[in-house]
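queue> holo job accepted (zinc ion)
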Amino acid sequence: MYFGSVRFFKHILLLLVAVVVAGLIALVVWQSAEVKRLSAELDGLKVEVATESDKPDTETEAETSANGFITTTPTETEAETTTAEPEPVSIGKYDLLYPELYADLPNNAAYDSDDNHIYLTFDDGPSDNTMSILSILDKYNVKATFFVVPQDTDEDAELMKAIVGRGHTIGVHSLTHNYNTIYKDTESFLEDFNAAYEIIYRRTGVKPVLFRFPGGSINDFNTTTIDDIITEMTRRGFIYFDWNCQSNDSDGANWTSMYYGVTSQIDVNKRSVVLFHDRNDCDNTVFVLEDIVLYFINNKDYVFSELKPTTTPLHF
Ligand SMILES: [Zn+2]
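queue> job finished
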């Protein structure tokens, strides 16, 4: 009889062992699959975390691009530094002085090409000679530049308006023209410059961009201070011009000396910035001006022009 026999129980035992072994195998297989699934989930989370931490970079880049200053994509370190510690806004040593005193520059940063150009400049005006100078310039439709030392009077205001109204450039020279005062330090220079600038703007409506240092950018009074003054004036957008042609009118030069001196210098220059003075004691300037203008209008292929912010600066 099979049922209840020893053989029967042996088979039952074998069957149980087989079931247990199969169960164990199934368990191992399931666990292995579970480990794989969890591992895959973990990888997914890592990708998400990585994407999140990339976001600040992207935002920084987008922001910077919107402001138009980006040239390269910031590295991870740079981006982290920017996000964590924004750079403090540094205040320059002269930033708090005359906060309105900045030049309005044109968007076009390119300089004009100006070979054979003659830039007549008149310093120290307005004066009793201003209207005579303007009449001569008008007669030949010559535009020039006046670096003024303005007094806050109606008389000077009318003369400055005439300069501007006839299409010439008005620039700042000085209020006091006192070398010892203005070249003492940058604060003193700014104080003098701002006072002159303010009178010109209030009286003519023009905000000057160009200026000329009294005595030129290199003189005996500013050797220790000029570098700092130029740095500050340039930071504010102002442009200065020296000269490469002297008339020596302020030294009392006569007609002959001025005529031959100025024309011969212009002849050898590629372009010329000519220094004249618009002063009561410089009558010879008025006497010689028309003859010098005629010399180049009649005999040479030259162009007279006023100085502009787009004129290549001329420095000593
Ligand atoms: Zn001067």
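queue> DSSP finds nine helices and eight strands in the chain.
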